[in-house]
Design goal:
single chain; alpha/beta; two-stranded antiparallel sheet; 11 helices; 11 strands; elongated
Amino acid sequence: MINPVHLRTLVEVTRLGSFAAAAARLGYTASAVSQQMSALERDAGVELFTRSARSIHPTEAALVMTRHAAKVLTDIEALMAAASRAGNTAGDTSRQELRLGIFPSLATYVLPRMLANPAWKKLGIDLRVSVAEPAQTIQGLRTGGELDVALVYQVGQSGLAWPHTVNRQWIGDDDFRVVLPAAWGIGTESKVAADHLSDMPWIVHHPGTSDATVIERLFASCNLHPRVVAYSDDFHASLEMAAAGLGAALVPELALLNRPAGVVVLDVPEIRLARNVFALLINEKQTAQVQLFVELLADTLHKLGTARQA
């Protein structure tokens, strides 16, 4: 049988990247952590870490086991809480408040679907939500801030920065697609070369933002020189203007879940760009419940992407 204590230590070692850091976090010695991980490797029959004189690196087996360990530990916590409630009429002491910052399209299309999932109700989380753009939600993670977790996106290597005290976890990708007015007569899902869209009217991001800079460079590399007719950082407004025939736009797939009639979506092979979606977590708040919340959200985003491609 695998020791749950070893699983909790594994989660911390994988998250923090060292035996010493995990030991400090859990109140063990580094030697004790090392011994626990060796015991876990023997019990599981797999190598969990590659070790060198100065560092350790989790193997793929360790990463897989860590993801499942979070679920196992949450189930154990739920079991203990249920037993406690059965013997204590004072009420539920297992719930955790989670103060969440989230960007608009994730709040519009992904969060409600996750909240409708029966698995959500089992997590024991009381959610407090703040919807804002990434730069604003990150401010809420700073010392003494009003958030525990921020769900943010980054386009390319744009200049989004966050406190070094938070843990970043990848959630998924939200790919950009080119949309055109249907009135232009180009068929839905047609394959079009980027330079064929040059000199056409375009709706683009306001200049000077990190996203706009990344897109400008991408367009230039494709020899696409748009004739700008509108600036908009609101994807829904961009879609409505495109539907009205004003111009083409580059829009993430999440926003296309509610696209209006009158636009077509193109496959432009040279234009491959995505919003990389991350969860930024305050370390002290990263319980097994919170980890399961992040995984459930990532699974919901993935299923949305799969449904769009079907």
